[in-house]
């Protein structure tokens, strides 16, 4: 027995809705993140031991004195991590290495920085972004309040004597 045409149409519509919902959600989430202002595309190196396969695409945005980073393809509306401006120390800006070129967008540069956590540990972060976004981020870091400037090549923990 052949199912009625209406049942087939309903099944197709339900299947399309179920399969497209995650894609629509991710698109709307990225749109929401980028509409907040002060946002830019930013990849983060999660595993320095394997730089070719550990760069993760994301969106970073400025919120007050913090830089928030969100994974591009994720369900959460919360940032994956936050970096407080006054706890960042710029180490260097560099071109991607030969093992990183394939993992990053053309024209992106890498910013290496040390970050002093609230418990006194120093974390090393590597962020990749366009030259324009890099210029904006460096200007934002340089504009930090007196005494919290990231100009030093020493980590904030070392500067604070921790």
TrEMBL record:
Q: Which UniProt keywords apply?
A: Membrane, Transmembrane, Transmembrane helix
Q: Which residues cross the membrane?
A: 6-28
Does this UniProt record's set of keywords contain Transmembrane? yes
Q: Which domain of life is it from?
A: Bacteria
From which source organism is this entry?
Answer: Candidatus Avipropionibacterium avicola
Q: Which InterPro entries match?
A: DUF2550
Query: What name does UniProt use for this protein?
Result: DUF2550 domain-containing protein
């Amino acid at each position: 027995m052949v199912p009625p045409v209406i049942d087939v149409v309903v099944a197709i519509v339900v299947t399309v809705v179920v399969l497209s919902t995650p894609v629509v959600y991710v698109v709307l989430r990225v749109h929401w993140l980028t509409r907040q202002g002060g946002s830019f595309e930013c990849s983060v190196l999660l595993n320095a031991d394997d730089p070719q396969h550990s760069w993760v695409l994301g969106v970073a945005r400025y919120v007050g004195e913090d830089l928030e980073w969100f994974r591009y393809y994720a369900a959460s509306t919360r940032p994956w991590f936050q970096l407080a401006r006054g706890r960042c120390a710029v180490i260097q800006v560099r071109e991607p290495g030969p093992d990183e070129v394939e993992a990053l967008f053309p024209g992106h540069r890498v910013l290496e920085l040390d970050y002093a956590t609230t418990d006194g540990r120093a974390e090393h972060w590597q962020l990749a972004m366009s030259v324009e976004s890099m210029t904006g981020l460096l200007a934002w870091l340089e504009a930090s309040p007196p005494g919290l400037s990231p100009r030093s090549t020493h980590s904030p923990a070392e500067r604070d004597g921790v």
